[in-house]
Amino acid sequence: MVARITPTARVSDLLLYNEKKVTQNEAKLIGAGNFLLNKDQLSYEDKLHRFQKQNQENSRAKLKMLHVTLNFSPEENLSDKKMAAIADRYMKGMDMEKQPYLVYRHEDAAHPHLHIVTSLIRDDGCRINTHHLGIRLSEPARKSIEKEFGLLPNRPSQSWPILKSDELQMIVPGSGIPVSRQIETITATINNAYSFSNLDEYNAILRGYNVTVETGKPGSKTHEHGGLYYLALDDDGRKISPPVMASQLPNRPTYAQLEKKFHQPGAKHEEYLLSVRQRIDLELFYQPANIREFVEDLRPESIEIVMSARKNGDPPAFIYVDHWNHIAVEAHRLGPAYTAESVLRTLSENHSRASDLRLQRTLSFAMDERGLKASGFNPRVPQTLFSVFSALPEPREHQLDQHLGQRLRR
């Protein structure tokens, strides 16, 4: 058995996540501790109100809820009754048996597992100490439960195999593979195959597989201690999973590990940068009609243009991801001619002043935070320009560009 514990702030998020799984027939409620009604009589409002009332006893604490997952070997054949009993025993081992808690059995993965949702606020208003909670209470409880219930012992986690880069698939919700396992596969493969010099470049590669990595908000413990956590995204960049701490993944893609790659570029690093420049120069030489066309024409050359996330009001930067040479590079590292402003200027100089204004409008809208939100994209994570342009309607004047003449390629 493997236990994972995550303190969190919002009770509604935890409940909605588990209740949504129930409505999708991917989970069911198998236990409820310290509720006035039987588990089969509880409505969503009953569950929410019970936790909210408990949490009102402490107005100072920020993290008032605890989310626990107990994961069992695929070889285990556990009834709902036995799973519920294991959850009750676990809560006793955590000295939380008097807390209100709900137990959900999930069927969305290849191995049996359950989720426990509970409050960290006791009846007297004291918040349960979560410092080293895993070492102090969770681990001893896990070992005792394995013996008492005859479960298969915890085994060292095996890393998911590193794939070839062209075999790597983006996150697929509802695939039956746990999100953490999918993130492990993606990060292990990217860290093995790609070169990058900072977190922005790393994030630009991850975005292509619907993953992002964050350092936490300034002032948070994660940020202060240089921690990282990963999140799964949908195609528009909205977050669809709880954070997965880098240190909890078997391949440990922590900042300390990534930093080694930052300072150790490959032997062919400069050669690869030159290759990126040459392919971009060639596309500009062919005089694409606008920025949208430029982005689309680079894709057959295995170059994806990614806009960095919005940070502190700074304008987003271009990051070029070269899937041939497995490298990501910020535009300014290629040289001043490859930044968004310079590329736009080059494109406009190839055409007319009217075209220049249309280019400015198209790119400004695509890169503007309001424009991204209007298109359904999350401006707080990196976005590929191709995806953004694909979601935008064609500019009304687009067909008028044809009078500018045939492109040299044609």
Question: Can you describe this structure?
Answer:
By secondary structure, the protein is of the alpha+beta class. The protein folds into 3 domains: 147 residues, BirA Bifunctional Protein, domain 2, CATH 3.30.930; 98 residues, no CATH class; 136 residues, no CATH class. It has 15 helices and 12 strands. Strands 1-3-5-4-2 form a 5-stranded antiparallel sheet, sandwiched between helices. A 4-stranded antiparallel sheet has the order 11-10-9-12, sandwiched between helices. Strands 6-7-8 form a 3-stranded antiparallel sheet. The chain is elongated and about 75 Å long. The termini are far apart.
Please name the defining characteristics of this protein.
410 residues, alpha+beta, BirA Bifunctional Protein, domain 2, 3 domains, 5-stranded antiparallel beta sheet, 4-stranded antiparallel beta sheet, 12 strands, 39% helix, elongated, disordered C terminus
Give the strand order of the largest sheet, numbering strands 1, 2, ... along the chain: 1-3-5-4-2
Stretches with pLDDT under 50, minimum 5 residues: 396-410
Helix-strand category: alpha+beta
What is the helix/strand order? Answer: EHEHEHEEHHHEHEEHHHEEEHHHHEH
> How many structurally independent domains?
3
- The counted number of beta strands is 12
